[in-house]
Amino acid sequence: VEAAMALAPMPDDRVLDLCAAPGGKSLVIASSMRLGLDEDADEGLLVCNERSSARRARLHRVLDAHLDERARARVRVTGHDASRWALHEPASYDRVLADVPCSSEQHVLQSQAALKEWSRSRSKRLAQSAYAIACAGFDALAPGGRLVYSTCALAPAENDGVVGRLLKRAGEEGRIVQSDPKLSSQRGVGAGEATAFGCHILPDTSGGRGPIYYAILERIA
Questions:
Q1: What is the C-alpha separation between 34 and 80, in angstroms, rounded?
Q2: Which residues have a Cβ under 8 Å from the Cβ of 208 and sit 6 or more positions away?
Q3: Is residue 163 within 8 Å of 148, Cβ to Cβ?
Q4: Residue whose C-alpha is closest to residue 163's, from 124, 210, 215, 213
Q5: Which of 136, 185, 196, 216 could form a disulfide with 85 if both were Cys (CB 3.0 to 4.6 A apart)?
Q6: What burial class does residue 136 get, using C-beta atoms within 10 Å of its C-beta: 0-12 exposed, 13-18 middle, 19+ buried?
Q7: Neighbouring residues of 164: CB distance < 8 A, sequence distance ≥ 6
Q8: pLDDT at 108 over 60
Q9: Greatest CA separation for the chain
Q10: Are 1 and 80 in contact (CB under 8 A)?
């Protein structure tokens, strides 16, 4: 939710949620865009992408259950490989959310099955996959557009590590938008802590919520 709110979309924006399932973030984005509510406005478009067919089916159910007919008509669901998105629609979106698959250490600690699957090499693979998705998300931005990169991981390699690599690749075309850690507390999420490129919300200072990491990048016009 915090990452979706940091996206700050406008009603007329074209918005892409690259890893949308199960749908909670997409609902926050749709609400922020006021989809279906501004009858006199040229309404925007929200594209919700999910590669997994099972998760995509759940995404459809969530959107259908919580959006009225007018709002739902402005939401498109796709099933593409997020890391290859910009090959199809480069420089096409005002806002992109990349809430990527990650280590999710809190889930690992709560699940014996997930704990058995954890390894350092798995975190490295996830960081590489996250970087590919983040690059695709950035390349899908129109000039002046905003990308929010987000995880629920503790591993620095999956958080600032990915964003640092993306900034180096973007060069003069990309810049960080500094987020205010105090805003997360005001939104009831918990106190955030500033990192080199973003904000980290940690369970020990947020009433057990998180971890949540997000960073905001803009593509310079």
A1: 26
A2: none
A3: no
A4: 215
A5: 136
A6: buried
A7: 196, 197
A8: no
A9: 54
A10: no
pLDDT of residue 192: 81
Structure token pair of residue 45: 């478009």
pLDDT confidence of residue 178: 84
**Active-site annotation holds for 199:** no
Coil, strand, or helix at residue 172?
A: helix
Q: What is the pLDDT of residue 104?
A: 67
User: Residue 200 carries which side chain, given as an amino acid letter?
Assistant: H
Question: What pLDDT, on the 0 to 100 scale, is given for residue 119?
Answer: 65
For 152-187, the pLDDT digits (tens) are 988 999 999 999 999 999 999 999 998 766 655 445
Active-site choice (48, 135, 152, 199)? 152
Place of tokens 């199960």: 22
* DSSP structural state of residue 41: S
Strands 141-151 and 212-219, how do they pair? antiparallel
Q: What three-state secondary structure class fits 112?
A: helix
- With tokens 């940690």, the residue in question is 202
Classify residue 36 as left (phi > 0), alpha (psi -120 to 50) or beta.
left
Report how far residue 127's alpha carbon sits from residue 123's, in angstroms, rounded to the nearest whole number: 6
Residue 198 phi/psi, 5-degree rounding, is -150, -140
Q: Is 50 helix (H, G, I), strand (E, B) or coil?
A: coil
> What is the C-alpha to C-alpha distance for residues 100 and 152, in angstroms, rounded to an integer?
9
User: What is the pLDDT, as a whole number, of residue 54?
Assistant: 97
